[in-house]
Structure formats: C-alpha cells, structure tokens
Amino acid sequence: MAPSSYQQPSRGDKKPGKTVSQSVDTNMPSETSTVAKILERKGKVVISVRPGDTVATAVGILREKHIGALLVVDEAGALIGILSERDIVRKLAETPGQTLPQLVEGLMTRDVVTCDPADTLDSVLKGMNDGRFRHMPVIEAGKLAGMISIGDVVNQRLLELEYESLQMKQMIVG
C-alpha cells in the first residue's frame, strides 16, 4: 500500500529530469583531516606537572588519568618539556629504587616537537613515526591548546575510513 501522500503520475505530468542523490563530490570529504578535528572531539584539556614535582607525583597522575605522558609547564603555563612513560621506565632501569623521589626536570624531554591545529594528520603521524614518540603537544597562537597521541590520530583516521566506506556503499546502492 502506498503512503497517503503519494500520488501516481498522470498522463499530463511532465517526465521528471534525471535526479542524483549521490555523487563523488557530495560523498567524499572536501577537507584534509587536521589536528583541530581531533581537538574538537577530544577537547583541549591539558594535563601537566611542574619541573619541581616528583616523579612519584607524575606517576600518580599518569595512573589516575589513564594517560601515557604529561606536559611539563612553568609557572606561566608555558611548555618546557614532556614526561612520558618511556622516560620514567628508562630512569627506573638506570636508578632502581631511587627514581620516584627524583624531580620531573631530571627526566623530562626538553626538546619537544609540537604541532599546530591546522597541521594535517598525515604530517603529524609522519613526525611521530620519524621521531619515535607517541605524544605531541598542540600549540595555538603561542599557547598550549591540548595534546594528541598517536592513538588519537589512528582513531580519527579509522572514523574517516568508516565514513568513506559508508559513502562509497551509498554511491553503489544509489
């Protein structure tokens, strides 16, 4: 049974022109994925420690927040380093039983590679892979705007691939 709003064509009706509900232009994303896309979904929360905090404090925050790295900031909130699980594990191997009371400034990585919200995910992923690190602070207009991980980049790309797959299926079905 046809819906009550449906009216069959009559003899005098003009034949409708060709309509297309799907096209390559409407189905393919028109923009390149950027760090900003991740920050939109993830948020711009920055979890940090100070250089004078102990490694024990940092480890507690890492465990509590279920994260793999902390940004190290000065009193003004400016980025001065990053402390990752790898940094801590290396120090644990060098100074067993003496690592937790040490200060963050002694373990942190000082030469931090950062990205901008406008950076493409491909360029960020390449930088992470080449530098062999998994976390990258985001700097916007000279200030910390968040931090992304390699997992964030991979998850964003998976979402995009899922979207592209759905769009292709819609194009095929019509």
UniProtKB/TrEMBL annotation:
Residues 39-99, 108-165 form the CBS domain. Gene3D superfamilies: CBS-domain. The keyword Flavoprotein does not apply. PROSITE patterns: CBS. Keywords: CBS domain. Residues 1-10, 19-31 have a biased composition (Polar residues). The keyword Transcription does not apply. This is CBS domain-containing protein. It comes from Roseibium limicola.
